[in-house]
Amino acid sequence: MITGGRSLISSQPAFSNDAKKLLVCTGNTVSIFSTSTGLQIAELEGHRGLVTSVVVVPSTTPAGKLLCYCWTSSEDGTIKYWDFSVPELMRSIDVKLPIHSMVIPGLSSQPRESSEKPSDLFAYVSVIVLKEQLGGSCALRWQIRKCNLTKSTLVGGVTLAESKNTLSITLSCSGRYMGVCDKRKLRIWEIPTKDSDHSVLQNIRLHHTKTLSTLAFHPTDRIVSAGDVTGRILIWRGVGEHNFSSGNKQRSGGLMKDMEENPGVRDKDEADICTTRHWHSAEVKVLFFSSDGAYLYSGGKEGVLVVWQLDTGKQKFLPRIGSPLLYFTISSDPSLSSISCADNRIHLLKMPSMEVLRSIQGIKLRSIVLDISDGSSEGIVFDSATGVVAICSENYCIQFYSLFDDREVSEVQVCERSHQPADEVTVVVDLVALSPEGSIMITVETRFAEEGIGGLVSLKFWSCSSSNKDFSLSTVVYEPHRFFLHEWVCRDSGISSIAFHPLRHMAVTTSRGADFKVSG
Question: Where is this region: Disordered (predicted)?
Answer without folding.
Answer: 247-267
